[in-house]
Design goal:
With 303 residues, the protein is of the alpha+beta class. It has one domain (2-272): Metallo-beta-lactamase, Chain A. It is 23% helix and 24% strand. The protein is built from seven helices and 16 strands. It has helices spanning 57-68, 89-96, 106-116, 190-201, 229-235, 245-256, 265-272; strands at 2-3, 13-20, 25-32, 37-41, 44-48, 53-55, 72-77, 86-87, 99-103, 131-133, 138-141, 144-150, 159-163, 166-168, 208-210, 226-228. The strands form three sheets. A seven-stranded mixed sheet has the order 1-2-3-4-7-9-10, covered by helices on one side. A six-stranded mixed sheet has the order 11-12-13-14-15-16. Helix 4 crosses helix 6. The longest helix has 12 residues, at 57-68.
């Protein structure tokens, strides 16, 4: 599913969304109409967990749209190391020469997960990525200027990209009727998440906010991924104006205790902290993903 909403066109910038229903992920093709330069934010690699097979149909749709418009992809941008889908950034880089960018605190995430997966090959300096963005850093997509906003809480490395009047918020916020991201992953912090949300809500009311996911809130039968700061301030079910930090943190803690781990958590993290690459092939030429197994106290005879 893809589309260009009526509000997504300006004299210079065009935003096209691509929705991947199996992972409920929205990727974005951002193009500068003046220079024909473009970026893809949070690209999805199709991974079948049951068979361990990989396909590229989702990212191919975005690349085909770019080709039809005569665009040159110069950036593959990640808002964070996702836990619910695998990144297609290296596929974009191989096809187009685009640079892969992510927030500089990906190094913290790599340090957290390296021992969890015993990932001896994994460097923890972020060097698998082409560029590590700092808070407040500005960069170009053609003649468009993008600004990086550091928004930790969901993970230690989350960032948002502000381009003109649009902000691509990653997993920090969802649509107002669905609320906010979880903060219980290793390195997550609900206090930080609240302050990151406030940082976004302090932007001008008309600022457009583009979500990375949508799950159809109760009572809504269509997927949505675009809202505004004003709508979030007045209607976000978890973080609208007037909700205190302590209230938010208590809500988030109680809610997170009820949430199951994302279906693709283990493969996603291992791949995404490597800038979308799989672990090195072993002697038989096959690449393997690790499943950490923790035995509960009292379980006998299994080791």
């Amino acid at each position: 599913m893809s589309g260009i909403s009526g509000s997504s066109l300006s004299s210079q910038m065009q935003i096209q969304a691509f929705f991947d229903e199996p992972t409920n992920t929205v990727s974005y093709l951002i193009s500068d109409l003046a220079t024909k330069r473009a970026a893809i934010i949070d690209p999805v690699l199709d991974y079948d967990h049951n068979s361990g097979t990989v396909d590229t149909r989702s990212v191919e749709a975005a690349l085909k749209a770019a080709e039809e418009k005569g665009l040159q992809i110069v950036w593959a941008l990640e808002t964070h190391a996702h836990a619910d889908h695998l990144s297609a950034a290296p596929f974009i880089k191989a096809r187009t020469g685009a640079k892969i960018g992510i927030g500089e605190h990906i190094k913290d995430v790599q340090r957290i997960f390296r021992p969890i997966f015993n990932a001896q090959d994994l460097k923890t300096d972020g060097s698998d990525f082409d560029h590590l963005f700092k808070d407040g850093e500005r960069f170009q997509i053609g003649s468009l200027e993008a600004e990086v906003l550091y928004t930790p809480g969901h993970t230690p490395a989350d960032i948002a990209y502000k381009i003109n009047d649009a902000v691509f918020v990653g997993d920090t916020l969802f649509m107002p009727d669905y609320g906010t991201a979880r903060a219980d992953f290793p390195g997550g912090d609900a206090h930080q998440l609240f302050r990151s949300i406030k940082k976004l809500m302090d932007l001008p009311p008309a600022t457009r906010l583009f979500m990375c996911h949508d799950y159809k809130a109760p009572g809504r039968d269509t997927y949505k991924w675009e809202t505004t700061v004003a709508e979030q301030r007045s209607a976000n079910v978890h973080a609208r104006e007037g909700i205190s930090e302590d209230e938010f943190v208590a809500m988030r803690a109680a809610r997170d205790e009820t949430l199951a781990a994302p279906r693709l958590l283990l493969p996603s993290i291992q791949v995404n902290i490597r800038a979308g690459k799989f672990p090195p092939a072993e002697a038989n030429g096959v690449r393997y993903l690790t499943i950490p197994v923790r035995l509960k106290p009292g379980v006998e005879g299994l080791s």
